[in-house]
Amino acid sequence: MNVRCPNCQTVFRVDPTKVPEAGVRARCSECDAVFAVYRETAPPAPTPDPVVPEPVPARPAPAPLPHPAALRPRPAFAPPPPVAPPVARPSVAPGRGAAPRGAPVRPAAGTKTEERAAPPGGAFNPFLSQDPKQKARRLARALVSDLVVYHPDKRERGLREGRLKELFDQEIKKSWEEYEEQVGKELAESTTYFNDALNEILGDGTQVF
Questions:
Q1: Beta bridge partners of 3
Q2: Which residues contact 135 (CB under 8 A, 6 or more apart)?
Q3: Non-local CB neighbours of 198 within 8 Å, separated by 6+ positions
């Protein structure tokens, strides 16, 4: 299912089977806003409307016979109604009016156009950034945010007992492998983006990792 951040309107893809029935609080990886996530439920089946029998229309009374004076012969040919002459429209000189239909619209000189636009009905993908460090930081926060969304009970237990490293050992290793594969080993090991995301999001601001 799709979950939209109410603060920055970023859309995330969440597995509904990982969300408990009571809901879970998640933190947006873009603006750090915390909001509630609930599992989608199927809408109730509509109740069929009661069948009401349609009333039988009464048979109309027969029309009265026309007066003998109205039975007059009609002419075999009736002249057509007059047609109004066409209205002349002024022609538009090229370059002074609207562009002809079907002609491509080109931006005026000196006008800047957007290089990237968000797809209709969807959110802009932050991982298409050209800056490798910015891409690495956002990817780290997204991967760690998934751990919080998919394992809310385990996280609460780890924070309460101080066992986050032990309880999330396998999940953190898998997320690190995916992070290292996408951003490169050299950039992953030379920056602290992944550990920063673990401390800020999974550790709730505590220096755990």
A1: 12
A2: 126, 127, 129, 183
A3: 144, 172, 208, 209
* C-alpha span between 151 and 200 (Å, rounded): 16
Residues 69, 90: Cα–Cα separation, whole Å: 54
141-170 per-position pLDDT tens digit: 999 999 999 999 999 999 999 998 999 999
Of the chain, the percentage scoring pLDDT greater than 70 comes to 58
Checking 59-68 for CB contacts under 8 A at 24+ apart, the result is none
* 8 A C-beta contact, residue 136 and residue 192: no
Tens-digit pLDDT profile for residues 29-52: 888 888 787 777 655 556 666 666
Locate 209 and state its tokens.
């990792």
- The partner residues of 26 in beta bridges, in order of sequence, read 35
What is the per-residue DSSP string for 150-207? H-HHHHHHHHHHT-HHHHTHHHHHHHHHHHHHHH-HHHHHH--HHHHHIIIIISTT--
